[in-house]
Amino acid sequence: MPPGPPAARRKSVTGTSRVMAAGFLLPALVLLGALVVYPIGYSVHRSFFDKSGGGFAGFDNYAEIFTDSTILTAVWNNAVWVVVAPAVATALGLIFAVLTERVRWGTAFKLIVFMPMAISMLAAGIIFRLVYEQDPERGVANAVWVGVHDTFAESAAFPRARPLPVHPLKAGERGAFVTREPVSAGTPVLLPLVGVAPAKMPSGAGPARAAEPGGDGRITGTAWLDFTRGGGGKPNVIDGEELGLKGIKVEAVRDGKVVASARAGADGRFSLPASAGGAQLRLPAENFREPYNGVDWLGPSLVTPAIIGSYVWMWAGFAMVLIAAGLASVPRELLEAARIDGANEWQVFRRVTVPLLAPVLAVVLVTLMINVLKIFDLVYIIAPGSAQDDANVLALQLYRSSFGTDSHLGVGSAIAVLLLLLVIPVMFLNIRRLRRESRR
């Protein structure tokens, strides 16, 4: 039997020389070693040394991860991210894929939902930092929230109005203002205020007019904005360009009890019955309470859910596209058979569609879990400095520990190793699932 060819000249099943194959793979292996293997090895080695890198610290850096309150917050937030963000994004992707499967404009809707994937994390972070602004005039989220709130709850018309020391009003209890002296019939009452920008006055407010003395013992008066643009007006005098405080509530109070109340008209004039004679007039605090300013989305309690919302906005389109591709391969005869057997649409979805889509859903879920374990950009950009500790995650803490003002490369390397250990099981499960799928 003739001897076989030398080992160096053996060829693979494709007819390619193994030496040639190794030559083509060598550059990739060198890059893999330089960019992946060496950094991992160095991080593991550095995690066992102290802050300076000159003294062996053992497992002290790993112990600090689970004792430092800031890092523990990052670990907890990462757990919340892993549980909530992939599940919500996958669920929304499944809902969008199923609901848009049979509608005519489904492709356009999918395009719109998928478009955020074209935006970088940096750009998305800047967008949502503006969306979550506290000021309703700048932040879209609070603009919508305040609009809905004000639809069902009346807001104060004069939140910063106040009298001047020369005015016949003084501060009362709980933010109200009362007249300095009791009122009497036949003498119109003057209730001047300042502190309201003319542009912020209620719509329909007209020039203020002096009230006429009331008949039958009625109490009359005028509440107006005692301010003239450009100056020149006199205090406690109704000048020509000054506006009435339309809708302001006026109460007559005697012995701590409200005996009568009225609201001023567009010209600021009001009228109270004769029973108000001898009482003090009060402008209650409900006229001056601060307007509802929305929700503090980036405050300590809501900053993490708010950032997760921005992540879902970006990645729900990714989940939708993959699930829609899997849905297109589902045998239609199985769905029709279930309907013929009497199943309604919800039962078809829950008992047929979802089980058939289980492999695709697993791919999407695992991919997003790996992605959120290393989330950094959105948290770093969206969370303000005052709430960054509350929104902290491991990747952000890795950056802060390694490159912050009080950097500790040993702790930073330990966090990097922890992240690697958290990712490996998820990757192992994904690889195992892919191999199982390939054998079918």
Oligomer: single chain
Q: Any idea what the CATH architecture of the largest domain is?
A: Orthogonal Bundle
Average pLDDT for all residues: 87
What string gives the helices and strands in order? HHHHHHEEEEEEEEHHHHHHH
Total helices: the number is 13
Counting DSSP E segments of at least 2 residues, the number of strands comes to 8
Main sheet?
Answer: 5 strands, antiparallel
CATH class of the largest domain: Mainly Alpha
Kindly identify the CATH topology of the largest domain: MetI-like fold
Q: Portion of residues in helices?
A: 40-55%
User: How many domains make up the 3D coordinates?
Assistant: 2
Cross-sheet strand order for the largest sheet: 1-2-8-5-6
**Class from helix and strand fractions:** alpha+beta
How would you describe the shape? elongated
Relative strand content: 5-15%
> Unreliable runs, pLDDT <50, ≥5 residues?
none
| Cα-atom radius of gyration | 35 Å
Q: What distance separates the N and C termini?
A: 41 Å
CATH superfamily of the largest domain: MetI-like
Characterization of the model:
There is one protein chain. The chain is an alpha+beta fold and 440 residues long. It folds into two domains: 56-143 and 297-439, MetI-like (MetI-like fold); 169-287, no CATH class. The chain contains 13 helices and eight strands. It has helices at 18-46, 60-65, 69-99, 106-114, 121-131, 140-152, 303-328, 332-340, 345-356, 358-373, 377-382, 394-403, 409-439, and strands at 169-171, 177-179, 189-193, 219-225, 249-254, 257-263, 269-272, 280-283. A five-stranded antiparallel β-sheet has the order 1-2-8-5-6, with no helix packed on it. Strand 1 (169-171) and strand 2 form a beta hairpin.
